[in-house]
Structure formats: C-alpha cells, structure tokens
User: Fold this.
Amino acid sequence: MYALDVDAVASGFERIVPPNAVLERISSDNIFTEGPVWNKAEGALYFTDIIGNKIKRWSPAEGTHVVMDPAGHPDGLTLDREGRLVVAGWGARTVWRLEPDGSATVLATHFDGKKFNSPNDIIVQSDGAVYWTDPNGGCYNPGMCDQDVQKYHDFQGVYRLSPDGATVSLVVDDFEGPNGLCFSPDESLLYVNDTLRRHIRVFDMQPDGSVTNGRVFYEDKFPERGVPDGMKVDVEGNIYCTGSAGVHVIDPAGRLLGRIKVPESVANHAWGDADWRGLYITARTTVYLVRLSIPGIPHGSWPGAR
Amino acid sequence: MEWNFELVAGPYGGTTEGPAWDGSALLFSFTHGNLVLRYNPTTGQTTEFRKHTNRTNGLAFSARGELFACQQFSRRIIRFNPDGSSAPMPYLLDGQYHNNPNDLAIDKQDRIWFSDPIHRLSLMSSPQPHFEHQSVLRLEQRFDRSWILRRMTFDTSSPNGLLVSEDQKTLYVADSSPVTRLAELRAYPIRDDGNLGAYTVLHTWGHDHRGAQRGIDGMCLDEAGNIIACAGANRSGAGPMIYVFSPTGRVLSTHPTPVDDPTNCTFGGPNLEDLYVTTLKGHLFKVSNTGHRGWLIYPPKS
Assistant:
C-alpha cells in the first residue's frame, strides 16, 4: 500500500479521487504489464505481459495466474458482447479472440493486402464493431516482437472491424504513434491519443462507423516520465489517460483536473470491481489498484452493459 | 593512379552505409530515411529495396546468400527474407539486450560477427538498459540449428567496421576510444576453437589540438587480402580518404575522397572491380579504376 501521491490541478479532482485513496500493489513479478480488463461475471482482472508473452488473470481470492503462454506478445485487451477476450495482438500483428475453451480465433490480420503494423489497444462498440490502434512498436521493439518484424504500411492508423467480422476499414491514418482509444459514454465521440505527439484527439462518430472532425483535445506538456498510452472514460465522460507521472484525469471539455501519480511508468488502466470504482493500473512489472469515487463505464456480457 | 570517384546516387542529406553487392546491384542503407536502397549499375537507377527499416546500418550476405542487417534502433540483427518479411535474430546476451549493432561480417561457418557500440540517441529513447561494454558479439548456430549469441571481444571501447579474412584466421576490427582518443585498426587471430587471441594493432590514428582523428568507419577486402578502409575527416588529421592496408598493416596507398566522412565501402560489378563508397552526407560513389579486385563471401566465385 502506498498513500496516493496526486497532483490536484483543478476543482472537481477531489470528487473523483478521495483524499484517503491508497495505491495498492496487487500483482508483481511481471515484466511489462498492459491490457487490463475486468470480467464482472468472474470478478477477475485479465491483463497481458507483453515481454513475458503471457495473458494473466488476477482475482482477489486467487491472486495472479497465467492464462496463456506464449500469447504472441499481446497488448490491449477488451471484452466482446459475449464476454470473450478480444486481443490487440501486438507482436503477433493480428486481432484475435480467446475462446472459452482456451483456443484462439483470429479476427483480422491484414489491410489492403498487407499485414498490420502491431495492434496496440482495442475497444468494442455496443453494436459489436471493433476498433484498434496500429502503431509501429511491435515491429520495432526487441522483446515484444514475433517472427516477422517488417513494417509494411506507410502509415500508423486506427482500424475498424465491422460487427459481422467481414470488413476491416481504415478509420484514420494520420497518426505518428496511435495508442489508447475510447468512446464517450454515449459513443458519439472517439478519443485517440498519440504517444509520439503527446496529445489526445477527439473525433465525431458517424452512423457508418467512420469518424469526422478530428481535433486536438488535450496535450501532455509535463516534464516527468510517462507518455499518453492507455485511455478510458468514466460514466460522467471524464477521460483518464496515461501520461507524465501517471494517470491524467481530464474533464469532457479537455481541462486537466489532476494527476494520479504512480511510481512506475504507466502503460494502461481499466475499471473493475463490482461497483466499477476500482481503477486497475498496469505499470511495467506491477499492477496497482486505486479506488475512486466515480465509476467507469461497465462493459461485457451482463444485463445493462454496453 | 588517381582514383576517379563517380557519384552514382545521392546525396540524400543523411548517412548512407552498409554497401553490399547482391551479384547484380548494390544494396545500401540510407539510415535516416529508414530505407535500404538498391543501385543497379546496368540501368543507373536507384530503387527502394526495403522501407521502414528503423535504421539498418551494416548489411551483409552470408555465403548462402541470406541477407542480414544491423537494425541499430531496434537493437538486433535481422534477416531480410526474399518474401519481404524480416526475421529478428536473438538479441539477448545473458538475459540482457545488446546495444546498437553497427556493422557485421559473416564467416564461412555462417557465424555473424557484429560490432555493438552504443548509439547516443538509443541511450535516451530505448526502454531497456545498455551494456557497460561495447564489444564484438557473434551469432552462431548450435548443433540443433538454433541461434545463440556470444560476446567475443573483452577489450574494445567502441568497435565499428569489422572483417573476417578470406582464410578465416583473422578478425579485423576498427576500434576507437574516447578516453585515449586513439583509433586503431586491430587484427585479432581467430583461434581454432573459435575464440579470439590477443590482437595486434595494424594502424593508429591519434589526436592533436584539432581533436581526435577519425579512424576507420567501414572497410572491405580485396582478393590479395588487403584492407580497403574508409577513414579520416577534414576536421583533423590528413583528411577524408580511402586507405589500402596490407594484411600486416603497411599503408600501400591512400586516396582522398571528394567529400568528407566516407563511411563504408565494398566491391561490386561483374568482376568485383568497382569500389562503392558511402558517406555521412549520403552519397554513393563508384570507383572503377582502383586496380584492385574485391573478395566477397557472396556471391560465390563463378
């Protein structure tokens, strides 16, 4: 347990991060944690260890266990409408689904006849469409790569897989390092951050799944270690984005409310617990938990979820 | 005889490196452009051979014609496969990531010798720590054909160009030290057990009030076993030039280059009589009247 170190910037931050909050270390002995996602039916957190090449599961009762090894150096995880894990397969350079029987189903591998760069983070829309970011790092970072490290596309973009799984379309192609992505609570907006440009852009969602009107929403101008990477939204539409020093809490107008400081570089985070008020933070070797006052957006296969 | 440097490609404004003759054309890295380019002397055209290389530097063919590259910013050796894919070679030495491979030489046993200095930009950007040492490392295959990585030198400061002699008994290494401010061309005996013996220094570059002289960056061999080396710069010493050393280190001749900072060279052409030279500013020169004929492990002699 750490007393939580925060950087409260604007009023409203205390309403989200209670003064008595602590940072709890729930899983250690990993190499590079990423992709946290809460499975409400199981009361468990799934996450990846990219360099360790594993998918892992943590629950309060059972602690951390390996679910899959090797796992193609996986990165972001989410759940589809049936509660199955959908994986941004970074090193494997595919998007795939982990079935209940432990087998893997590949959902997408190529666009325009060329292998993806390295799918990084991934979300599922309420209609079943899958969106993911496709930066370079799974090709270029030693320790995170699979058998083929050649990058084929001349851009780094955001892709969408249609709800029927039949069509991969390129949604945006003008990023340097697209990384975390999330919808606003009503799914009218798509937020995507860019690690290399250290900012978040927001786009207007169109009925056909495309986006328009991209504009810079937030810039991380702090000097401390850390970059925009994982990103999630709470039920009020506040955006939680990794960045310098830890997790930045940004209101829907793009105003920084404050920062949750974390002692290791944060790669991603996700809400969990029965009340969706636990923020699970993956930071290199460790997964941390901090309890917040406003719940995140529920997801998965249970009634009332999106 | 005055060498005639003919500009055949570039300048690209950023470093060209790693010239490698593929049997009919010259491959070379344009490091800052993240490209490997291919100059075809028959057509005079230069085309893209590989894109998105994340700064490959040295390129080399094995005796079997496999093409390997030093992927500096990804801190590994990769193999460019004929189908367009790229396979990473092992990059962990005793569980740690090696540095930023710069140049490589492949011997007749398919062992890949490479220099592994530290690139200053990598020190700032790479998430994994670098070694305390900057050494020559070697990738080699075990009995089951799996690859392992070994450290071969324990006395280098910042190794750069390297060569294996045709008789496979000598490893030539260009090394420089920021401490002594000396640059050396070293000859390490390759012992029968595959390890290196004590080196001899074939040539030394010193320093004066203008700074340390620029030693060898890249080099190649001719069929007599002479070492053709790119060294020198306008800022100190006798200027940029191509040296020809005998196997024992006699300076047989020197040839000033028309631009500063020649980086690397290799022979090509139908009879391996054309010397190709790359530079820090991104030129590709061809010299057809060197009077030397190159020796390459690939393509095989017809």
Summary: Chain A touches chain B at residues 136, 139-143, 145, 147-152, 154 (CB under 8 Å). The longest helix of chain A spans residues 13-16. The two ends of chain A are 32 Å apart (CA to CA). DSSP finds two helices and 28 strands in chain A.
